[in-house]
Protein backbone atom coordinates (compact mmCIF):
# COMPACT_ATOMS: atom_id res chain seq x y z
CA UNK A 1 0.00 0.00 0.00
CA UNK A 2 1.35 3.45 -0.86
CA UNK A 3 1.82 6.06 1.87
CA UNK A 4 1.46 9.82 1.61
CA UNK A 5 4.37 12.24 1.85
CA UNK A 6 3.93 15.82 2.93
CA UNK A 7 5.53 19.20 2.36
CA UNK A 8 8.30 20.01 -0.11
CA UNK A 9 10.74 17.23 0.56
CA UNK A 10 14.44 17.63 -0.07
CA UNK A 11 15.33 13.96 -0.47
CA UNK A 12 13.75 10.95 -2.16
CA UNK A 13 14.65 7.36 -3.01
CA UNK A 14 13.48 5.35 -5.97
CA UNK A 15 14.12 2.42 -8.26
CA UNK A 16 13.70 2.79 -12.00
CA UNK A 17 13.47 0.70 -15.12
CA UNK A 18 15.21 2.48 -18.00
CA UNK A 19 14.65 1.58 -21.64
CA UNK A 20 17.06 3.38 -23.94
CA UNK A 21 16.32 4.10 -27.60
CA UNK A 22 18.18 5.40 -30.64
CA UNK A 23 17.57 9.03 -29.58
CA UNK A 24 18.98 8.52 -26.06
CA UNK A 25 21.98 10.64 -25.08
CA UNK A 26 24.15 7.52 -24.80
CA UNK A 27 22.43 4.74 -26.80
CA UNK A 28 24.36 1.84 -25.26
CA UNK A 29 22.85 -0.51 -22.66
CA UNK A 30 24.76 -0.57 -19.36
CA UNK A 31 23.39 -4.07 -18.78
CA UNK A 32 24.40 -5.78 -22.03
CA UNK A 33 27.06 -3.40 -23.36
CA UNK A 34 25.28 -3.45 -26.73
CA UNK A 35 24.33 -0.57 -29.02
CA UNK A 36 20.64 0.32 -28.84
CA UNK A 37 18.70 -0.17 -32.09
CA UNK A 38 15.14 0.32 -30.76
CA UNK A 39 13.31 3.44 -31.95
CA UNK A 40 11.77 5.79 -29.40
CA UNK A 41 8.21 4.87 -30.43
CA UNK A 42 9.01 1.17 -30.18
CA UNK A 43 10.69 1.70 -26.79
CA UNK A 44 7.60 3.51 -25.48
CA UNK A 45 5.26 0.73 -26.60
CA UNK A 46 7.61 -1.86 -25.14
CA UNK A 47 7.83 -0.09 -21.77
CA UNK A 48 4.07 0.48 -21.64
CA UNK A 49 3.61 -3.26 -22.17
CA UNK A 50 6.01 -4.04 -19.33
CA UNK A 51 4.16 -1.57 -17.09
CA UNK A 52 0.82 -3.25 -17.81
CA UNK A 53 2.33 -6.61 -16.84
CA UNK A 54 3.77 -5.16 -13.64
CA UNK A 55 0.43 -3.68 -12.58
CA UNK A 56 -1.34 -6.98 -13.30
CA UNK A 57 1.12 -9.01 -11.20
CA UNK A 58 0.04 -10.26 -7.72
CA UNK A 59 3.06 -8.44 -6.23
CA UNK A 60 3.72 -5.46 -8.48
CA UNK A 61 6.81 -4.27 -6.58
CA UNK A 62 8.52 -7.66 -6.87
CA UNK A 63 7.59 -7.89 -10.55
CA UNK A 64 8.97 -4.39 -11.11
CA UNK A 65 12.27 -5.08 -9.33
CA UNK A 66 12.76 -8.34 -11.25
CA UNK A 67 12.26 -6.52 -14.55
CA UNK A 68 14.73 -3.85 -13.46
CA UNK A 69 17.30 -6.62 -12.96
CA UNK A 70 16.59 -8.31 -16.28
CA UNK A 71 15.53 -5.47 -18.60
CA UNK A 72 16.83 -2.08 -17.46
CA UNK A 73 19.54 -0.38 -19.53
CA UNK A 74 20.83 1.55 -16.49
CA UNK A 75 23.78 0.34 -14.42
CA UNK A 76 21.38 0.22 -11.46
CA UNK A 77 20.02 -3.07 -12.87
CA UNK A 78 22.56 -4.69 -10.52
CA UNK A 79 20.59 -3.28 -7.55
CA UNK A 80 17.20 -4.14 -9.10
CA UNK A 81 16.91 -0.52 -10.22
CA UNK A 82 17.54 1.06 -6.80
CA UNK A 83 19.19 4.49 -7.13
CA UNK A 84 19.36 5.09 -3.38
CA UNK A 85 18.61 8.42 -1.71
CA UNK A 86 19.08 11.60 -3.75
CA UNK A 87 18.32 15.27 -3.36
CA UNK A 88 16.70 17.86 -5.56
CA UNK A 89 18.92 18.96 -8.42
CA UNK A 90 20.78 15.63 -8.67
CA UNK A 91 18.60 14.04 -11.37
CA UNK A 92 17.29 15.31 -14.69
CA UNK A 93 14.31 17.58 -14.08
CA UNK A 94 11.54 15.34 -15.52
CA UNK A 95 12.86 12.39 -13.50
CA UNK A 96 13.10 14.43 -10.31
CA UNK A 97 9.61 15.89 -10.67
CA UNK A 98 8.07 12.49 -11.36
CA UNK A 99 9.80 10.90 -8.37
CA UNK A 100 8.89 13.59 -5.85
CA UNK A 101 5.27 13.58 -7.10
CA UNK A 102 4.86 9.88 -6.29
CA UNK A 103 3.68 8.40 -3.01
CA UNK A 104 5.95 5.82 -1.42
CA UNK A 105 5.19 2.47 -3.05
CA UNK A 106 3.60 4.10 -6.12
CA UNK A 107 4.66 3.48 -9.72
CA UNK A 108 4.94 6.25 -12.29
CA UNK A 109 3.82 6.17 -15.87
CA UNK A 110 6.43 6.44 -18.62
CA UNK A 111 8.84 9.33 -17.94
CA UNK A 112 10.92 10.79 -20.79
CA UNK A 113 14.46 12.14 -20.21
CA UNK A 114 17.62 12.54 -22.30
CA UNK A 115 18.72 9.13 -20.98
CA UNK A 116 15.66 7.32 -22.34
CA UNK A 117 12.25 6.23 -21.06
CA UNK A 118 11.72 5.30 -17.42
CA UNK A 119 9.18 3.76 -15.09
CA UNK A 120 9.85 4.82 -11.50
CA UNK A 121 8.94 3.21 -8.17
CA UNK A 122 9.22 5.46 -5.14
CA UNK A 123 10.86 3.77 -2.14
CA UNK A 124 11.23 4.71 1.55
CA UNK A 125 14.40 6.64 2.32
CA UNK A 126 17.23 4.50 3.62
CA UNK A 127 17.40 6.81 6.64
CA UNK A 128 13.72 6.00 7.33
CA UNK A 129 14.46 2.28 7.15
CA UNK A 130 17.33 2.69 9.61
CA UNK A 131 14.96 4.35 12.08
CA UNK A 132 12.53 1.42 12.06
CA UNK A 133 12.17 -0.61 15.27
CA UNK A 134 14.81 -3.37 15.63
CA UNK A 135 12.19 -6.10 15.15
CA UNK A 136 11.58 -4.83 11.63
CA UNK A 137 15.29 -4.65 10.75
CA UNK A 138 16.44 -8.07 11.89
CA UNK A 139 18.46 -9.99 9.36
CA UNK A 140 19.32 -13.65 9.56
CA UNK A 141 22.89 -14.34 10.69
CA UNK A 142 23.15 -17.10 8.08
CA UNK A 143 21.30 -18.34 5.03
CA UNK A 144 21.48 -21.50 2.97
CA UNK A 145 21.17 -21.10 -0.78
CA UNK A 146 21.59 -22.90 -4.07
CA UNK A 147 22.51 -21.15 -7.28
CA UNK A 148 22.81 -21.71 -10.99
CA UNK A 149 25.84 -19.85 -12.35
CA UNK A 150 26.43 -19.06 -15.99
CA UNK A 151 29.93 -17.76 -16.57
CA UNK A 152 30.58 -15.41 -19.48
CA UNK A 153 33.55 -14.10 -21.40
CA UNK A 154 33.55 -11.20 -18.88
CA UNK A 155 33.72 -13.45 -15.80
CA UNK A 156 36.71 -13.17 -13.48
CA UNK A 157 37.66 -16.78 -14.24
CA UNK A 158 36.01 -17.73 -17.56
CA UNK A 159 36.39 -21.49 -17.19
CA UNK A 160 33.49 -23.81 -16.32
CA UNK A 161 34.02 -25.82 -13.14
CA UNK A 162 31.58 -28.37 -14.56
CA UNK A 163 33.19 -29.01 -17.96
CA UNK A 164 36.65 -27.43 -17.44
CA UNK A 165 36.13 -25.78 -20.84
CA UNK A 166 36.90 -22.15 -21.61
CA UNK A 167 33.76 -19.98 -21.63
CA UNK A 168 32.78 -18.47 -24.96
CA UNK A 169 29.32 -17.17 -23.96
CA UNK A 170 28.80 -13.40 -24.25
CA UNK A 171 27.10 -11.68 -21.26
CA UNK A 172 24.01 -10.78 -23.30
CA UNK A 173 23.61 -14.37 -24.55
CA UNK A 174 24.14 -15.75 -21.04
CA UNK A 175 21.46 -13.42 -19.67
CA UNK A 176 18.92 -14.56 -22.27
CA UNK A 177 19.77 -18.20 -21.60
CA UNK A 178 19.45 -17.77 -17.84
CA UNK A 179 16.15 -15.91 -18.18
CA UNK A 180 14.85 -18.88 -20.16
CA UNK A 181 15.98 -21.32 -17.49
CA UNK A 182 14.31 -19.24 -14.78
CA UNK A 183 10.98 -19.17 -16.63
CA UNK A 184 11.22 -22.91 -17.24
CA UNK A 185 11.94 -23.58 -13.56
CA UNK A 186 9.15 -21.34 -12.26
CA UNK A 187 6.58 -22.89 -14.60
CA UNK A 188 7.46 -26.47 -13.62
CA UNK A 189 5.36 -28.59 -11.24
CA UNK A 190 8.18 -28.69 -8.68
CA UNK A 191 10.38 -25.56 -9.07
CA UNK A 192 12.87 -26.64 -6.39
CA UNK A 193 13.44 -30.01 -8.04
CA UNK A 194 13.65 -28.35 -11.46
CA UNK A 195 16.16 -25.82 -10.11
CA UNK A 196 18.45 -28.56 -8.76
CA UNK A 197 18.22 -30.53 -12.02
CA UNK A 198 19.04 -27.48 -14.13
CA UNK A 199 21.95 -26.54 -11.84
CA UNK A 200 23.37 -30.07 -12.19
CA UNK A 201 23.05 -29.93 -15.97
CA UNK A 202 24.12 -26.36 -16.66
CA UNK A 203 25.79 -24.51 -13.76
CA UNK A 204 29.44 -23.51 -14.21
CA UNK A 205 30.07 -23.59 -10.44
CA UNK A 206 31.49 -26.70 -8.76
CA UNK A 207 28.30 -26.78 -6.68
CA UNK A 208 26.57 -28.20 -9.80
CA UNK A 209 27.21 -31.68 -8.37
CA UNK A 210 24.97 -30.81 -5.38
CA UNK A 211 22.22 -29.23 -7.48
CA UNK A 212 23.76 -25.83 -6.83
CA UNK A 213 23.60 -26.13 -3.02
CA UNK A 214 26.21 -23.86 -1.41
CA UNK A 215 25.30 -24.78 2.15
CA UNK A 216 25.06 -22.16 4.90
CA UNK A 217 26.97 -18.88 4.76
CA UNK A 218 26.98 -15.62 6.65
CA UNK A 219 27.57 -11.96 5.82
CA UNK A 220 30.94 -11.24 4.21
CA UNK A 221 31.45 -14.74 2.82
CA UNK A 222 30.06 -14.11 -0.67
CA UNK A 223 30.38 -11.28 -3.16
CA UNK A 224 28.15 -8.39 -2.10
CA UNK A 225 25.52 -8.59 -4.89
CA UNK A 226 25.16 -12.33 -4.27
CA UNK A 227 24.97 -11.90 -0.50
CA UNK A 228 22.41 -9.10 -0.69
CA UNK A 229 20.20 -11.07 -3.06
CA UNK A 230 20.40 -14.25 -0.95
CA UNK A 231 19.54 -12.52 2.33
CA UNK A 232 16.67 -10.56 0.75
CA UNK A 233 14.89 -13.71 -0.47
CA UNK A 234 12.22 -15.56 1.48
CA UNK A 235 12.92 -19.24 2.11
CA UNK A 236 11.86 -21.11 -1.03
CA UNK A 237 11.98 -18.01 -3.24
CA UNK A 238 13.98 -17.86 -6.47
CA UNK A 239 15.77 -14.62 -7.34
CA UNK A 240 15.91 -12.73 -10.58
CA UNK A 241 19.24 -12.60 -12.36
CA UNK A 242 22.10 -11.50 -10.10
CA UNK A 243 25.40 -10.31 -11.55
CA UNK A 244 28.75 -10.75 -9.80
CA UNK A 245 32.38 -10.92 -10.89
CA UNK A 246 31.89 -14.68 -11.26
CA UNK A 247 29.09 -14.37 -13.82
CA UNK A 248 25.29 -14.40 -13.80
CA UNK A 249 23.31 -16.28 -11.16
CA UNK A 250 19.81 -17.23 -10.20
CA UNK A 251 19.54 -18.07 -6.51
CA UNK A 252 17.18 -20.31 -4.55
CA UNK A 253 17.05 -19.65 -0.82
CA UNK A 254 16.87 -22.98 0.99
CA UNK A 255 16.96 -21.91 4.67
UniProtKB/TrEMBL annotation:
It holds the Pfam family Rotamase. PANTHER family: PEPTIDYL-PROLYL CIS-TRANS ISOMERASE, PEPTIDYL-PROLYL CIS-TRANS ISOMERASE-RELATED. InterPro entries: PPIase_dom_sf (IPR046357), PPIase_Pin1 (IPR051370), PPIase_PpiC (IPR000297). SUPFAM superfamilies: FKBP-like. One of its GO terms (cellular component) is host cell cytoplasm. Signal peptide: none annotated. This is Peptidyl-prolyl cis-trans isomerase. Interacts with host FBXW7; leading to FBXW7 autoubiquitination and subsequent degradation. Keywords: Host cytoplasm, Host nucleus, Isomerase, Rotamase. It catalyses: [protein]-peptidylproline (omega=180) = [protein]-peptidylproline (omega=0). Its EC number is 5.2.1.8. Peptidyl-prolyl cis/trans isomerase (PPIase) that acts as a key virulence factor by promoting host leukocyte transformation. Binds to and isomerizes specific phosphorylated Ser/Thr-Pro (pSer/Thr-Pro) motifs in a subset of proteins, resulting in conformational changes in the proteins. Promotes host leukocyte transformation by binding to phosphorylated host FBXW7, disrupting dimerization and promoting FBXW7 autoubiquitination and subsequent degradation. Degradation of host FBXW7, leads to stabilization of JUN, which promotes cell transformation. It is found in: Host cytoplasm; Host nucleus. The keyword Isomerase applies. GO terms for molecular function: peptidyl-prolyl cis-trans isomerase activity. It comes from the Eukaryota. Residues 9-124, 140-255 form the PpiC domain. The keyword Isomerase applies. Its main location: host cell.
